[in-house]
Amino acid sequence: MISTNPASSPGGFRWLQLAIGIVCMAMIANLQYGWTLFVDPIDAKFHWGRPAIQLAFTIFVMTETWLVPVEAWFVDKYGPRIVIMFGGLMIGLAWIMNSYASSLVTLYAAAVVAGIGAGAVYGTCVGNALKWFPDRRGLAAGATAAGFGAGAALTVVPIANMIAASGYQSTFLTFGIGQGLIVILLAWFVRPPHGVEAPRKKRLNLPQSAIDYTPPQVLRTPVFWVMYVVFVMVASGGLMTAAQIGPIAHDFKIADTPVTLAGFQMAALTFAISLDRVFDGFGRPLFGWVSDNIGREHTMFIAFATAALMLLTLSTYGHIPVVFVLATAIYFGVFGEIYSLFPATSGDTFGAKYATTNNGMLYTAKGTAALLVPLASIISSQLGWQAVFIVAVALNATAALTALFLIKPMRRAFILGSEATASAAIARAKVFPGEGGRLEAPMSYDRLEKAP
Questions:
Q1: Distance CA 321, CA 248 (A)
Q2: Contact by Cβ (8 Å): 95, 174
Q3: CA-to-CA distance for 385 and 315, rounded, in angstroms?
Q4: 14 burial level (CB within 10 Å; 0-12, 13-18, 19+)
Q5: Which residues, in sequence order, are bridge partners of residue 443?
Q6: Residue 258, beta-bridge partner list
Q7: pLDDT digit string, tens, across residues 67-93
Q8: Residue 285 in contact with residue 146, Cβ under 8 Å?
Q9: pLDDT per residue as tens digits for the range 181-206
């Protein structure tokens, strides 16, 4: 029997918390990765046009990401359980609204509701994982994000089949209610690492800050903004591909072409989306684990460079069904690592105490990147999908070089400087004990500033 008392089994309990977070993330995955299956059916019914419909996707991503810091504040004040329950309610309501939407205004309103709900679940689960696993941040963040990346893998085929059999409106309603209820139920079992101290971070061959920086202090650091820009460059290509993979396959005239791989045969589009989710989900914890061992920036370089190569392959040979399926699978296998590496890098750089809010601020880069998704539809209509892919290739290649030759030295210098500041403050506290007698490390930066 699994104990739900953290004090009784802290080691096993934190893995239970990780598992709950993964399942909750899987329940919100279709809000992003299943959306592409609904675009053409919605357009066929109402003839609003792809760019207008895809604006709902952009609104969803912007709302999901830009409100995460606010939702993280509620987590810090009221705990993760209530925030995740609220998120489950909102994601269920959003898909119910989608099922009845007969105007773009309603579709956009549902996207706002969905974004609020998904952000509440996403930010809380990733932040909780970072706090429970200071010794394995890359792996924990990657495993949690894998729920979001791979969660749609098991439901892509059922959703596609239900849309074909019962229509997209019934599909929205059924899956919306089911996903929302599961998140609300699991929220009852989510706990932060209070009452038992999470394991201390082990000594890794990675630069990790001895100071817990507050969110306002993080926003004043140049390294945060360089990381933010790189996040935007990489996320823009992935969001475009995730949202537009259906229209791309239809424009390449391969969506319904049968593809056989490893004894499985499916239509190219369905096969691609299913395989994309599997590779995406597998890649997030894998690259998180790799980064725990070889470093965050080296892992970023490998992943971003591979993503650029796959996008270049799609621009040239994407009209070949088997190439389309395999190239998109490999691309998503390396793209999803941004959702494990950037949270882990944020925790390493700015500390664990405010990890939920600090990572939430960095995660808003995904919302900024979402602004480019409708632009991709406009460019493709004028210049074709090849032009869109070439832009994405350039962004990923630039991001790979920036990670290795700019972020790495900036972050190391920043962390070494923080360690020197912490050591000096501790030394002063020993000489001038003050009221508390001593200072502890790691500590929050505001405490350092008040040290004698």
A1: 12
A2: no
A3: 7
A4: buried
A5: 211
A6: 267
A7: 888 888 788 778 899 999 999 999 999
A8: yes
A9: 999 999 999 988 875 444 555 545 67
